[in-house]
Amino acid sequence: MASGPDQGVTVVPVDFHDPANALTYSGRNADPAWGRAVTSLVDATGRTVVDIGCGGGTYAREWLRLGASAVVGVDSSIPILGAARADAPAGLELREGDAAATGLPGGRHDVVFARALVHHVPDLRSVVAEAHRLLRPGGHYLVQDRTMEDVDQPGSPDHPRGWIFEVFPRLRDVEARRRPDSAALRDAMVAQGLDRPAGRSLWEVRRHYPDRNAYLADVSARTGRSLLHELDDQRARSSTCTVGRVVMPFCRSTRTRILTWDERHPR
User: Which residue in 25, 70, 115, 193 has the fewest CB atoms around it within 10 Å?
Assistant: First the structure.
């Protein structure tokens, strides 16, 4: 029988519809480097953007800062949307909706963006089809998410999540069940008529922490970490031991994949 913190880990997925989790994706801004990476792919100036699976609105707000004329954030969680509305700027509309059936008019949007979404959806192709439906001619579809290639990066001061997997290897198994690989993402896009999607890797800085205690508090609260909801409170707190070797100060960053497609590519 296994021993240590991972013994007896019970999988209890996060309930995005529980009011107790309303703030789990709030209170964070995108790092400026993320904006530079995105604008190297698509000019946001004057564009209309749909952010599917917008959560607390972090990236929906950032699209406006990058110059988008209007952003619609769509999410299925009423509590999380309620928290996002508390500081929603002008130009940002937040709507309840399903990633595969947003209820938005088709063919009218310049950019459809989905960050940290695809590992939560049961039918990837239907989500891609909905994004394709929403785009106007000349539009862009950007999907940003971790694949298993990214999950398996070793732990480091810039990637402390890797240390959490050392302590709780069953969490890595949870990731393997829910995260597609890069080929699966491309196949889903191609199957819906989005030919020749382009991919790149991005190390996205999520937050800089002034000291270890600030990071420990953030991890214990599971802020923005749906995976840690797979642990009970005691084990979530114990996961903070994984950063004991970190030299302060440090940052938390995550390597993700960005797949892009635009209408300039022939179907």
Answer: 193
Helices (H) and strands (E) in the chain — how many of each? 10, 7
Does residue 210 fall inside a structural domain?
yes
pTM, two decimals, is 0.77
CA gap 42, 35 in Å, rounded: 10
Picking from 80, 260, 63, 25, the residue whose alpha carbon sits closest to that of residue 72 is 63
98, β-bridge pairs: 101
Structural domain total, the chain: 1
Environment class of 131 (CB within 10 Å of its CB; exposed 0-12, middle 13-18, buried 19+): buried
Please check whether residue 10 lies inside any domain of the structure: no
Supply the DSSP symbol for 229. Answer: G
Three-state DSSP at 67 gives coil
Q: With beta carbons less than 8 A apart as the criterion, state whether 177 and 122 touch.
A: no
Q: Which domain holds residue 159?
A: 19-262
